[in-house]
Amino acid sequence: MSAATGSDSGVGAALTPPPDVASPVRHPDAPAPGTLLGAHYDQCFGCGEGQLHGLHLEARAGEGVTVTAEFTVRPAHQGAPGLAHGGVLALALDETLGSLNWLLRVIAVTGRLETDFVRPVPVGATLHLEARCTGVAGRKIYGSAVGRIGGSDGPVAVRADSVFIEVKLEHFTKNGRPQEIKAALADPDQVKVARAFEVNP
Ligand SMILES: CCCCCCCCCCCCCC(=O)SCCNC(=O)CCNC(=O)[C@H](O)C(C)(C)COP(=O)(O)OP(=O)(O)OC[C@H]1O[C@@H](n2cnc3c(N)ncnc32)[C@H](O)[C@@H]1OP(=O)(O)O
After folding, report:
1. Which residue ranges does the record assign to the Thioesterase domain (predicted)?
2. Per-residue pLDDT for 35 more than 50?
3. Fewer CB in 10 Å around end: N or C, the chain?
């Protein structure tokens, strides 16, 4: 069997929700639409303020299970001269899609992320992102996101479909480096602890 068809390849794990998929249910304690969600973890490369060259992406709760986010491309994010690296743009989509889990109040990690790069994104541009949860099937959380440039109604530069997989807290405590796990759990602000692991407080 070739690597591309092996059981670890992810091939066949469709990004389209099954026809009988359950509609996502916004958690009753989810932040009101318009609320800035803030960094889920200070050291997150996507949203953390403690990461000098990180994206510092700012996500806001939307209606239902949707979020909007903004990220301004800085010189540290280049791939080609003057243009954002594709991996950085995929990260912006991943991070925005991951923020949906806070509205569902589940802990989940990215299982699959398929990205279309539609237009080049220059340094200095702000990417306006919108993500929505398209369904929940067991532990699988389906999502879709777009990123626009030139304004929130500007042309689409990137888009992605994703499947996040719900995990237990042990996913992090067993696999993460102990010093960071210990520090995150020791934070006296329990909302911060909950957010660091995107867990129901
Ligand atoms: C301090 C640190 C804080 C961190 C906070 C994080 C918050 C997040 C913030 C956001 C930050 C940004 C986000 C990040 O950067 S998250 C970081 C990047 N992601 C990861 O590191 C995940 C690594 N992968 C794994 O750990 C495992 O493979 C997981 C946990 C995903 C599944 O292994 P597990 O053994 O548990 O699952 P299972 O085999 O029983 O399958 C269960 C179901 O799932 C389906 N399935 C499985 N894999 C895939 C796949 N790839 N595509 C599609 N579907 C898949 C599977 O078919 C089955 O479906 P069904 O048969 O039930 O229908």
Report:
1. 82-140
2. yes
3. N
Please tell me the distance from the alpha carbon of residue 108 to that of residue 199, in angstroms, as a whole number: 9
pLDDT in tens, 123-147: 999 999 999 999 999 999 999 999 9
How far apart (Å, rounded) are the C-alpha atoms in residues 166 and 118?
A: 30
Rounded to an integer, what distance in angstroms lies between the CA atom of residue 38 and that of residue 31?
11
Domain architecture of the chain: domains with CATH = 19-196 (3.10.129.10)
Distance CA 195, CA 7 (A): 32
Residues in contact with ligand 1 by the CB-under-6-Å rule are 10, 13, 40-41, 94-95, 98, 109-112, 138-140, 163, 165, 167, 172, 176, 180, 184, 196-198
- Helix, strand, coil share of the chain (percent; to 5): 25, 30, 50
